[in-house]
């Protein structure tokens, strides 16, 4: 499987790529506590074998892509936990290395699997739920200084692509998109949304318009959002960017930034997947609340 870019959703050229699910969910299913400021990134230092097991489980469930445990990994976060900058960059790169090793283990039976290096928003490292609010109140220079080093570290580790995900705010999107164009690594870009707006309250058409024409992007869309909001975001992404869409909702509910848990989750309505595909989604998976069994069911529906 290759990372490809196409224009328009109606041509049907690009095959479906099944993404994995929530790293935190797969780790919790192993009995791991993933709370704390570093969330799943803690295991990059403490228990990397657990992360490898999660990647392996998602591949076995039918995923084509392993998304690294780097969503909440940053120099700022690791240094706040007592590590120096060099160790922080090493751990960020380790996230990619772990996924690549698992991918290579599976290559004989499933060639063409991919590694996507997760790039979470600035709000993720704050640990206060602001990845679902945006409007951080910081200068764009701070956002650039935050994202630049981690993007460079992830790119150095050799992923197949970058997964820029759960971005709540088009102002942050503009900063990240410019940084992506400085790197020679393909990427998908997905917002967190509510209804017809980003989580920060900007119209989706405007939010996706800032991604149009970016040479690094292979897909744009939505993640970690309610399943009922996915179709509108997919349609807006395709209309504004001309790219295939990426779609991987969460299991619903409310995020508690103190306990780092979701409440009131519900099963995915797999009947919705057909409409996402018809609208142009070509990268489909799950986010928080989706374990390997959920990805297996989603893959069966999408491929069927």
UniProtKB/TrEMBL annotation:
One of its GO terms (molecular function) is S-adenosylmethionine-homocysteine S-methyltransferase activity. One of its GO terms (biological process) is methionine biosynthetic process. The keyword Zinc applies. It comes from the Bacteria. The keyword Metal-binding applies. Binds 1 zinc ion per subunit. Its cofactor is Zn(2+). InterPro entries: BHMT-like, HCY_dom, HCY_dom_sf, Hcy_S-methyltransferase. Residues 5-302 form the Hcy-binding domain. Zn(2+) binds at residues 224, 287-288. This is Homocysteine S-methyltransferase. Gene3D superfamilies: Homocysteine-binding-like domain (3.20.20.330). Keywords: Metal-binding, Methyltransferase, Transferase, Zinc.
């Amino acid at each position: 499987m290759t990372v490809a870019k196409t224009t328009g959703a109606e041509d049907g050229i690009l095959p479906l790529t099944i993404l994995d699910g929530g790293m935190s969910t797969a780790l919790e299913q192993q009995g791991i506590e993933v709370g704390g400021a570093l969330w799943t990134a803690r295991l990059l230092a403490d228990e990397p074998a657990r992360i490898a097991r999660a990647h392996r489980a998602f591949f076995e469930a039918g995923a084509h892509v392993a998304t690294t445990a780097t969503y909440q990994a940053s120099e700022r976060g690791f240094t706040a936990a007592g590590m120096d900058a060099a160790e922080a960059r090493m751990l960020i790169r380790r996230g990619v290395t772990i996924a690549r090793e698992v991918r290579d283990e599976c290559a004989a039976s499933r060639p063409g699997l991919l590694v996507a290096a997760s790039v979470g928003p600035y709000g993720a490292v704050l640990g206060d739920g602001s990845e679902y609010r945006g409007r951080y109140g910081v200068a764009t220079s701070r956002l650039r200084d935050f994202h630049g080093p981690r993007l460079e570290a992830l790119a150095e580790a050799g992923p197949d692509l970058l997964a820029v995900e759960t971005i709540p705010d088009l102002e942050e999107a503009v900063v990240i998109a410019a940084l992506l164009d400085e790197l020679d690594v393909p990427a998908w870009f997905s917002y967190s949304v509510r209804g017809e707006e980003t989580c920060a309250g900007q119209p989706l058409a405007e939010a996706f318009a800032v991604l149009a024409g970016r040479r690094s992007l292979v897909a744009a869309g939505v993640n970690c959002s309610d399943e009922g909001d996915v179709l509108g975001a997919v349609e807006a992404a395709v209309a504004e960017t001309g790219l295939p869409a990426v779609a991987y909702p969460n299991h619903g509910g409310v995020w508690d930034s103190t306990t780092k848990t979701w409440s009131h989750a519900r099963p995915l309505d797999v009947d919705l997947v057909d409409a996402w595909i018809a609208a142009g989604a070509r990268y489909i998976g799950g986010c928080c609340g989706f374990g390997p069994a959920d990805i297996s069911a989603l893959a069966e529906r999408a491929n069927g």
